[in-house]
Amino acid sequence: MPATICFNLKKIVRLLQLAGLCFLLMFNVETTSAQTFKIIKIHCQLSREDTATIYKIARYEASFYNAVFDTQKNDSVAINIHVFGRKADFKQTPDGENSLHFFADGYYLERTGEIFVLKTEHVNSALLHEISHAFLHLNLKNPPQWFDEGLATYFGSLIVDNNQIFYTPVVGRIERVKEMIVGKQFIPDDFLRYNNQNWSLNHQSITDKYTIAYSIIYFMVKTNLNLIKHMADGLKNGQTANQVFAEIFGSAQGFNNRYTNFYQQQNLD
Questions:
Q1: Which has more confidence, 211 or 18?
Q2: 50 vs 117: CA distance, rounded Å
Q3: How does pLDDT run across 128-150, given as a tens digit for each residue?
Q4: Which of 147, 136, 138 is nearest to 196 (CA)?
Q5: End-to-end distance of the chain based on CA atoms, in angstroms?
Q6: DSSP 3-state assignment of 83?
Q7: Could you tell me which of 263, 256, 167, 249 has the C-alpha nearest to residue 215?
Q8: In whole angstroms, how large is the CA radius of gyration of the chain?
Q9: From residue 1, how far is each of 121, 140, 155, 196 by CA, in Å?
Q10: pLDDT per residue over 253-264, tens digit each?
Q11: pLDDT digits over 7-62, tens only?
């Protein structure tokens, strides 16, 4: 069984400071947030606990993106979150039918900044995923799709429980990446060249694209947490992801080698 990592939100800041990684999370669960969240419920009920969890998720992600982008603006962002109890109602939203076609329980609508989520047993995961999109797009214009979906998928694997965040590696995705590496089905540096305009032209399946995007974020987090901030800074300054990784690892091949070696050594049994 893979290890489950538990993050105590009151202690993690100090631990990260000691490790020199204080960018990751500046979050105190006792502080109040100036965020404006409007939760619109359509044919569904949310308990007080459900509502508190939604706010907790948003505060956690706001703190993360504040630290990554050296800002406080995410504390005051306004986000409308639409939660649907019926699939038929969700399908009537601007991109609901297309979302369900790809087996997604929610989506972020960039042109309005709204989040639409179908209430299922996976609603917390969907919210973690979609709120990540909202914050990233607020801080970085036109982010590369691998970075956008990779971060959102990584956040979607977190589990919120009281004042703790639990993270368990997504074994299925990691095993699939290992298979693709063995089969030489993709080259990491080449994958990064696919952006919002041409990612859809990639021959790989949607599931594999999300899996590779997640795997790059997971690699970055496990290698050095500061790589997320380094990437965000580079992208905001006009660099490509390939350029940022080449700068970090010495060359594109250096990145390919480090990524490949990392997954060849992963043993999640």
A1: 211
A2: 14
A3: 999 999 999 999 999 999 999 99
A4: 147
A5: 5
A6: strand
A7: 263
A8: 18
A9: 23, 37, 21, 36
A10: 999 999 999 999
A11: 343 443 443 333 333 333 333 333 334 567 788 999 998 888 888 888 888 888 89
- Say what the pLDDT of residue 19 is: 35
Residue holding tokens 């990491």? 188
Q: What is the DSSP track for 94-156?
A: TTHHHHHHTT-SEEEETTTTEEEEE-STTHHHHHHHHHHHHHHHHHSSS--HHHHHHHHHHHH
Q: Which one-letter DSSP state was computed for residue 74? A: G
Token pair for 12: 């993690």
pLDDT (0 to 100) of residue 22: 35
Check residues 177 and 204 and name the one with the higher pLDDT.
177
Beta carbons of 14 and 23 less than 8 angstroms apart: no
Query: Whose CA is closest to 27, among 3, 42, 11?
Result: 11
Length of the chain in residues, anyone? 269
Task: Give CA–CA dist 189/64, Å, rounded.
Answer: 26
Q: What is the signed CA dihedral for 263, 265, 267, 268, rounded to 10 degrees?
A: -40
As a whole number of angstroms, the distance between CA 30 and CA 157 comes to: 24
Give percent of the chain above pLDDT 90: 54
For residue 239, the SS3 value is coil
* Crossing angle of helices 226-236 and 241-249, rounded to 10°: 130
